[in-house]
Amino acid sequence: MTEKKTNKSQFVVMETAFNYNDEVHTVVAGNAGQPVAVFSSKKKAELFAKERIVENFLMGWGGEQLGSFGWEVKDVFRYQPKCLEKMSIFFERELWDLEDVLDFQVMSRKELEQIADALSIRPYTVVQVK
């Protein structure tokens, strides 16, 4: 009897490891991180990763220090989230203090998800493995 090979991919959600050098947070060399969950569906893994970004990062330590994840707005955000359209002036500056402008504790779930999608930094990522 021959063994049937399966090419079923798994999708691992990784928590990104960051270094802090008294000025900014940077991703640890080689994109090192900690696996936190495994899924057979990429969509489920991506939803879980977004949930972790909102709950563990934005509502936790990362949200309190978001401005320290880069030198400029473009280092933190890939684009301006719709929920922050009224704050355009902050997206025109090079340096700013996000902690004085954004209060993630009072934002709606939809707003937090928009911010999670717009982040340049990826506190949680999905990696496909076979």
**Biggest sheet statistics:** 3 strands, antiparallel
Q: Structural class per helix/strand content?
A: alpha+beta
Put simply, the count of helices is 6
- What is the gyration radius calculated from CA atoms? 17 Å
Unreliable stretches = none
Task: Assign a percent range to the helix content.
Answer: 25-40%
Shape field: globular
**Strand adjacency order, main sheet:** 4-1-5
Number of domains: 1
- Beta content comes to 15-25%
How many β-strand stretches?
A: 5
* Secondary-structure element series: EEEEHHHHHHE
Q: Estimate the mean pLDDT confidence.
A: 86
Q: For the terminal residues, how far apart are their CA atoms?
A: 24 Å
